[in-house]
Structure formats: C-alpha cells, structure tokens
C-alpha cells in the first residue's frame, strides 16, 4: 500500500469515526424518557434510558399491562432462560400480591425464525411439529418452576395477518423501504431518536441496505423455507416486528412494562421501540423496560450457541424449584449472576434455615417446645422494623436481596429466642401470639415471593397427573373422530372419564380436536 493510499484510507477512517461520534452525541441529546400521565404507585423502578430509578406511574389505576419476550422454541430451555423468567415472576408477584396491582401479562412464543427453520431442517422435521414440541416443553418447565402463567401465550404464526398490516402501516408512513427481492427494511434515518435504549452497533454485512443500522421487517422467502403471501413478496416476519405487532394488538399504542433478558436491549428492544413509535405516531411506546441480567458459567454467558447450558430439567434433578427461586431472591434482577455449586449451596442453606424456623415456630405454638426464652416486646418490635424495611426495599426497584436480608435477620432474632437455653423456662402462653405473628408474616412473604409450600407442591404434582390423563384422553378421542366409522366403545369410555372427573370437581370441555380442563373453585 503506497503512502497516498494510506493517507486516503486514514482520512476516510477519521471521517467515519467523526460521523459516528457526531451521531452518538446527537442520539444522546435527543434520547429521553417521557414521564407517563396517570396514577402514582409509590414504587421506584430502574430506567435504562435515564440510567436511574424513576417513579412507576400507570395509565390505568392499579392495572399494569406487561409484555414479555418469550422463548424461541427450537430447543429446550436452560436455567439462564429460567432465571430471566423467574426474576420477572418475582417482580410480577411483588406487584400483584404485595402492592395489590392487577398485572395483565402477555408473552410471545417465537415459533418461526432462522433458528427454528435451521433446526427443523437439520432434524428433517416439520417446523410446526418442532416448535409445538418445544413450546409445550417450555410451558411445562415454567410450571415445574412455579412461574405464573401469562394471561396469553401468543404464537407468532397466529399473528401473521396483523404483522403484515403492521409492516404495511410503517411502509405507508414512509419509514421503511422495499428491496428488489421483496424484503422490507426499517429506515432508521427517518427515526430521529434511534439509540434511545443503547448506543447502536452497526451491522456492516449487508451492503444493500441504505444504512448499516436498518433492520428487516419482512424477509423474502428463500428456497424450501416456510412463507406467507404479502403485498411485497412471499416471506415471513423479521424478528423485531413480531413482538411490536403482538404487543400492539393486545395492548394498543402504549405498554406499561416490557421485559426480557439484558441481551435484548439491542437490537431487539431498540428496534421494537423505534418501529412501534413510528407505526403509532407516538414519542414513547413502552413506558418501562425491565431487563434481567444473564446467568454465566466461568465468566461466559450461558448460551445454546456456546453449548454451555444446563437444561431446566437437568437442573431440577439436583435442586428444587424453591431453591432456584431462593437463589434469584438473594440476587439483584438487573445484574449478571455467576452460577456455581457454592452459590446454589448457599441458597439451599438459606431455604433450609427458613424451613427449620417455620417448623420450630409451629412446634412452639402447639406446645411441643420445652426450651427457649421469647421476649415478646423485642420480637414484635423486630417484626415491625422488618415489615417497614421490606416494604421500602420492594418499593425501591424490587430489591429482593435486601428484603431477604431483613427477613433472615427477623428469623435470626426469633431463632435466638427459641433456642435460648440459658435460664430457659417452659413455653409461656402469653408469648404464643408474638411467635404466631412472626410465623404468619414469614410464610406470607414467602408466598408473595412464590416460595411454594408442601400443599402447593402436591397440587402441582396432581395437576401434572390430570394433564397427562387429559392428553391421553384427547389422543384417543381424536383418533376415533378421524375414523369414518366411529368406535362407540372408545367414545363412551372418553365420556365416562369426563363424567367421573366432573364428579371429582374437575371440569372437562371438548372443543373439536382440543380439550381444556379446570378445577372447580367452589
């Protein structure tokens, strides 16, 4: 390379760097968070745009709309995924069970994308069958972890018409352009505050785009790929447009909370916000973003692509759902967590200590405790201080680690009194209300955090048994219905199972080829 060429190259690099720096400065100046109009909750929540905590304000009184980026169902979920959904579940339970906010949640199931297609091709399996298998597995995994179901699981393939209409709306507004092959790309130059959530990282691999930052809304179909007809070309949705469309279809032009892993900030959430603001012609689509830190192994993010994952079912062979939830409660939802046997053993020890304390309190109350010296005044004062400190911690960006620290301090105080062998006297009846009050508070808080008790765990096992029976019955019934000449004996047997379950308080409803069931509440 001669000197002239080097100088020209140097000049071009300097110019590019200057443009990038100028762009970043411009974005930083323009990017801002708009405080929503609505109802105060007295809760503070971290805001990735302002980089500080802001007040949680809801557009509807005591009702919070929440959209969750769900799984891409091409493989089994691992505990890195589980931690994100567990943290989200803990926050959801705090909002609903502690602060009495009605949380309405929807979750996307990505059942069509590059990874799904690649996996189905490698296994020589229909992509629908593959995605349904891992979707069902994911839902079962969440049940095993006692993670509350969203009100809606939304498969991308069920929203294709709405997605096409959403893309068309962006094109019609002049915020997207169409390539020769029929693919549609969002034009980031038309959205002045692109980079609201984070500094954009350029993708230089596509020379056909107007800008390296532009992203795909509609992908023209390649050979032997699943596709849907559209005004531009047969194809399928881009990744980001799926969530924008589904969330907008359900919640409209404004969402209170949108959550996902911290790795989704860019490009996924950035692109969602950009295209949704353009489509709805609003300055702010999501009012609050919640990003959960990822789980790492030996300083490397747990990822399917790195093949360093631990599946949820593999994990549950060694530990319980309550122990995993305790691990999450002892950490901050925003930060990376380095997984190891040591931190899991610590969670096991903490949970064991709590369970032992609950057992000791029960024995004290019923008179099976012959030692100890309970100072009622001190114990009740500690209970009140604990209640106040936990309320403050949970209202301050859901600081469960601080809340758990306060709870464990209360348990330490109670344990010291219950196990005080010096000058101990037989249980004094007047101290029972204080111990019962502490026991009630501890178990109530654990329930609010999602730590299930034994009866809840047994209920979950029974639900799994019922679900297995329902699947078997549905398979038999569907096979009979497919036959030209119906097997009346098998149909009668299916009806008998339904009647007997109804007598046990389990309602079974058949809808063509699908069956749903529920348990009578009263």
From TrEMBL:
CDD domains: CysRS_core. It comes from the Eukaryota. One of its GO terms (molecular function) is cysteine-tRNA ligase activity. It is an enzyme of class 6 (ligase). Transmembrane segments: none annotated. Its cofactor is Zn(2+). Signal peptide: none annotated. Residues 62-347 form the tRNA synthetases class I catalytic domain. It holds the Pfam family tRNA-synt_1e. SUPFAM superfamilies: Anticodon-binding domain of a subclass of class I aminoacyl-tRNA synthetases, Nucleotidylyl transferase. One of its GO terms (cellular component) is cytoplasm. GO terms for biological process: cysteinyl-tRNA aminoacylation. The keyword S-adenosyl-L-methionine does not apply. Keywords: Aminoacyl-tRNA synthetase, ATP-binding, Ligase, Metal-binding, Nucleotide-binding, Protein biosynthesis, Zinc. Gene3D superfamilies: Cysteine-tRNA ligase, C-terminal anti-codon recognition domain, HUPs. Its EC number is 6.1.1.16. NCBIfam families: cysS. Belongs to the class-I aminoacyl-tRNA synthetase family. HAMAP family: Cys_tRNA_synth. Mitochondrial cysteine-specific aminoacyl-tRNA synthetase that catalyzes the ATP-dependent ligation of cysteine to tRNA(Cys). This is cysteine--tRNA ligase. It comes from Melipona quadrifasciata.
